[in-house]
Write a structure and sequence with these properties.
Elements lengths: L1 E2 L7 H31 L6 H25 L11 E5 L3 E6 L4 E5 L5 E4 L3 E5 L5 E5 L6 H11 L5
Helix pairs in contact: 1-2
Amino acid sequence: MIETNSVQFTTKTFFATLLLVYLKKRWWLLIWFLILSIALLFKEQRDSIEKFLVLIGFVYPIIVVFQYWRFANSKDNKVFFLERKYEITDDKIIGNLSDGTSNEILIIHLTKAIKLKKCFLLYLSKNQFLYFPKDSFKSESDKNWFEQKIVSQIK
């Protein structure tokens, strides 16, 4: 069993993490919109549909960023910003929140793991995940154990 140091999401970190996950999945869509918009922008004669596509191509990335910013700063997400510590065993993760509550999650219920540069995200469902910053582990061996025993067994 390992324990983590206290972990707390800030709105800035939450927003950056959500946006990074989106960009990892859909970077090609944003690039495609921008390339199409730039190509149509330099066309000499544009009809109204092409003008609309140029507008959408430049506005769509801004809308995506705004939606994630708004979600990250929503008052409905205050549970994400509670300080927590995790106790991790071979078969379960126990999260102890700063408000005195705790939850126990079996590893077999985790559906997906994403390894980012600074953290691990373990998904319970499409929109629910556990956040483990790499610096929250008390030692390098704890982090390696977590990555080998927990993250690697989630498919």
